Amino acid sequence: MQRRGEYGSTMSGTFDAKVSRRGQASLPASLTRRWGLTGGGVVGIFDLGEAALIVPDGLDAARRELRSVLRERYEDGIHAIDDRDLADQ
To answer: Which residue of 17, 33, 40, 86 has the smallest Cβ count within 10 Å?
Structure first.
């Protein structure tokens, strides 16, 4: 997956964003620069119930990244199992 800006770099802080009456919010300039969105772009928003997660490059890109990370972690976990009978399950 091609990443724009410095997405994936160390988190630099937390931010508050003001939402207008029309439901619009602005991302902090430091995020738009880091995520490569200075000329505009797409972000994905995951509604987590009591919170929301905002990710650069939209939901499809976020899902691909999540699948990749989970696949890698799963494979690492399988290789760490020291019981041959369980490792191939």
So the answer is: 40
